[in-house]
Design a protein that fits this description.
Layout: H1 5-9, E1 18-19, E2 22-23, E3 25-26, H2 37-50, H3 60-79, E4 88-91, H4 94-104, E5 114-118, H5 127-136, E6 139-143, H6 153-159, E7 164-170, H7 182-191, E8 195-199, H8 211-214, E9 218-222, E10 233-237, H9 239-244, E11 255-258, E12 263-265, H10 279-295, H11 297-315, E13 321-324, E14 333-338, H12 343-352, E15 355-356, E16 358-360, H13 365-371, E17 376-380, H14 387-404
Parallel strand pairs: 3-15, 5-6, 5-7, 7-8, 8-9
Antiparallel strand pairs: 1-2, 4-10, 9-10, 11-12, 13-14, 14-17, 16-17
Helix pairs in contact: 2-10, 3-10, 4-5, 11-14, 12-14
This protein binds ligand C6P.
Ligand C6P binds next to helix 4.
């Protein structure tokens, strides 16, 4: 079913503001998405009507807040087709989820073990594994890139061996938009007995992953990339892994019993949820999933691919403009540079014209090193963007080129 984009845009109050005297064109969706009124209302309703701590009180407000938070966990479970509700761990976001797993593996790895990451990773899927290698003596191996920004799959197969304990790959690259063949990556890793963590920070706003079908061992994402609030996300782990991993943080609500001699830990998911969580955020995450599902992921994917095709075609008409990330499977992200012009300068000028894009290395410096560039201009599109906004971007980039050449 086709999207009614104008109607959808009415759900997003921020899209009606002006920036520097121009109607806002928000094309920084890969950094964070905008929030529909339905999600904003959910947060306001929580704080105005039943704000209370959860899992701790017998009073009515605490029960209401606990129920809403646990309903949100069930919405996440259903959305990602997760077998058990207690395989859903609330986190503060993707970065938190990855660090939780990396920390947990400290006790399982030793010298001689190997961890594989891809050359397409965000820093949050590189640095925690480097730290894990430093702690354990394990070695980090990297799947290299083709010139078009796709992974060299045959090199991945070469890297796999009985020494491989873990494989970490993002579902979609934030810097280039490349969609990785994660089903094949997971299958190959499992053949050598390695566990796989998929970083879904960029994918969840575009596709609806079926985690049981994918059979990954861990999956992490952030609510703020998918119309939800910041500061909340989820870690999925297969039950056997979550049972094996030690807790990441100690504190309230993650215990069964505490004495000065010995502490025993709570059952899943609470073992990994120490301290007061982002309650409003978790409930808002559930509302965001509901919102996106009401629109429908097939319709979103179809429309975003039209935006991508049109924007790619129009941008490539600009002489000297080069797009990085030109693989066959791409999401609606366009990373580009114009010969002889620094990406920051383009970003600054288009902002003056009301257009928000991200410039720089996008927390993925190894990709920039691969292309031997300081960074790119990144325009990332969401289902609430329009073809007219693509035209505004193209005309602003042309203007920037004229001013800076
Ligand atoms: N990428 C971007 O502009 P957090 O910050 O924990 O919500 O997400 C981290 C993260 C991890 N993996 C990938 C693939 C990501 O894209 C991100 C966040 C944003 O591209 C902000 S740096």
């Amino acid at each position: 079913m086709a999207l009614n984009v104008q109607e959808i845009r009415n759900d997003f109050p921020i899209l009606h503001r002006e920036v520097n005297g121009h109607p806002l064109v928000y094309l920084d969706n890969a950094a964070t998405s905008q929030k529909p009124q339905q999600v904003i209302d959910t947060l306001v309703h929580y704080y105005s009507h039943y704000n209370a701590n959860i899992h701790r009180g017998v009073h009515t407000l605490s029960q209401e807040a606990t129920d809403a938070y646990e309903i949100a966990r069930k919405k996440i479970q259903a959305h990602f087709n997760i077998r058990h509700t207690h395989e859903v761990i609330f986190t503060s976001g993707t970065t938190h989820g990855i660090n939780l797993v990396a920390n947990g593996f400290s006790s399982f790895l030793k010298e001689g073990d190997e961890i594989i990451v891809s050359a397409l990773e965000h820093h949050s899927n590189i640095v925690p594994w480097q730290m894990l290698c430093e702690r354990t003596g394990a070695t980090l191996k990297v799947i290299p890139l083709n010139e078009n920004g796709t992974l060299i799959f045959s090199e991945y197969e070469q890297l796999l061996s009985s020494a491989t304990k873990l494989v970490f790959v993002n579902h979609i690259s934030n810097a280039l938009g490349t969609i990785n063949p994660i089903a094949k990556i997971i299958e190959k890793a499992h053949e050598v007995g390695a566990a796989v963590l998929i970083d879904g920070a960029q994918s969840c706003s575009h596709v609806k992953p079926d985690l049981q079908a994918l059979d990954c061992d861990f999956y992490v994402t952030s609510a703020h990339k998918m119309c939800g609030p910041t500061g909340v996300g989820m870690l999925y782990g297969k039950l056997e892994w979550l049972n094996k991993l030690p807790p990441y943080q100690g504190g309230g609500e993650m215990i069964k019993e505490v004495t000065f001699e010995k502490t025993t830990y709570a059952d899943l998911p609470h073992k990994f949820e120490a301290g007061t969580p982002n309650i409003a955020g978790g409930i808002g995450f559930g509302a965001a999933l509901e919102y996106l599902n009401n629109i429908g992921f097939e319709a979103i994917a179809q429309y975003e691919s039209e935006l991508l095709a049109y924007a790619t075609e129009e941008l490539l008409k600009i002489e000297g403009l080069k797009i990085y990330g030109t693989g066959p499977d791409k999401t609606s992200v366009i990373s580009f540079n114009i010969e002889g012009i620094h990406p920051y300068d383009i970003g600054t000028i288009v902002d003056k014209l009301g257009i928000a894009v991200r410039t720089g290395h996008h927390c993925a410096q190894p990709i920039m090193d691969f292309y031997q560039i300081p960074g790119t201009v990144r325009a990332s599109f969401a289902f609430y963007n329009t073809m007219e906004e693509v035209d505004r971007l193209v005309s602003a980039v042309k203007k920037a080129k004229m001013m800076l050449s």
